[in-house]
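Study this fold:
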Amino acid sequence: MNRLFIILIVLAVVVAGVISYAYYMVYLPQQYQQYSANYYNQQLQNMGYYGGMMGGGMMGGGGAYHMMGYYGGYEVMYESTVPISQAISMMRNVPSYAKVFPNNDSIIFTSKDITIVILSMGHKRAINLTGYTPPSYAQHNVFVIYGLINPTLIIPSGASVRFVLINLDAGDYHNVAITPVSPPYPYYVMMYIRMNVLGMSPLLPPANYNSGQAYEFSFTTTFYQPGTYYYLCEYPGHAEMGMYGKIIVV
């Protein structure tokens, strides 16, 4: 009788464990990812994306056609492609109003009308491209800006900044969003930063290294208030693992 009782208790514990695992490790993450995807897609619609078409305006394209699809429930969109070699040249062509400081991984901008070319990629590709080591917090994917990895950007107050994102990653989708919300970031970061987004791009597909083409998108943000902001990738897990950098508006 005691043996049967013990077996029943063990079975009850196992069943409870399976149910708890299924709920907390499978059901809830799936539900949260769906909420996160819906929120992200709603943000895109609020910023002027409708069924693959977008007129001119804040986010950009002068009435150009924009391809659209889905990846993991998230809308992906891209304005155009550029040769990968051209993207690297754009990143290395430092504007006259920018001063790069490799020793402290920072860039100072002096203009009120700024264009910043951002390349997204894995950290190994970034090391090979720049010759620098990523910041210690960056464990996987990173941004490369004018030869530096996840640099701190110092921008004058009132500056209008056109961010040009080009995805050079061979396998991952990336976007870039601007927010005053500081790290650390959770796995589902886009729900965490919620409405505290000053500007963002859609998710861009990986580069096609067979054809030598990469996807790009641009948007413009004006920094009216001094303070500290961050640029980050909103795809789940990317910012959590260090795909972000700081913006200081002075």
In short: Residues 49-65 have pLDDT under 50 and may be disordered. The CA atoms of residues 103 and 152 lie 12 Å apart. The helical segments are 2-46, 84-92, 123-130, 189-193. The two ends are 76 Å apart (CA to CA).
